[in-house]
Amino acid sequence: MSLSISTPPGSCHASGLHVASPVLANIKLSGFHSIPALDRTNLSRSVVRYKVSPRATSDETNTQAVGEQLSEELKAESTVESTVSSRPASSASIDKDIKKVVQKTASTFAPRASTASKNPAVPGTALYTVFEVQGYASMLLGGALSFNLLFPSNEPDIWRLMGMWSIWMFTIPSLRARDCSKNEKEALNYLFLLIPLLNVAIPFFWKSFAVVWTADTIAFFGMYAWKFGWLQRTD
Fold first, then answer.
1. What's the CA gap between 3 and 110, in Å, rounded?
2. What CA–CA distance (Å, rounded) separates 163 from 141?
3. Can you name the residues that pair with 13 across neighbouring β-strands?
4. What global pTM score does this model have?
5. Over pLDDT 90: what percentage of the chain?
6. Rounded CA gap, 160 and 151, in Å?
């Protein structure tokens, strides 16, 4: 690299170096070359790419993470929806199985017609009314016996025992003997299996014929209210 500086003559004095006129310096840098405009443009683009590429990579990473999180949330929501939708189906199948078991058990042990002919006790006939009156009359008579109003005694006897079991022995068979609706038949089938459980379990806690008969009566009308929807609100 060579460096040469030329100044005009007669510009210096003996007393010292004094520049009287502007210095014209011609600097020649032989070791450096000027960068063309095209190379400068490519260099600036490479610098910009170098600066932008980490940002683009971080943006892609964040986008990918957000996408994975959204996919996981969608999977979780679909799983919850499938679980919720499967619950009504499973509960319906359980109710159906219970109805089958109750109907089969009640039809096996409960009194039924001796012939396979059509039930003559259809609504509107005298036989239908007889069975209905007999059923509810036996319930009231059983209550009077359980509360010791008829044939009173100070000791447990057969009359009070019959009063306690009157709903299961007389009321339910009389009502089942009619040609009743499907909901009423299901209610009577459930009661035919439920009342013996109540009559056996309650005396372990409370030895009272009246209490047992009261529990049977509450179960009877509660079952009817459930099957007929008496407690459901209507718009």
1. 126
2. 7
3. 16
4. 0.58
5. 42
6. 9
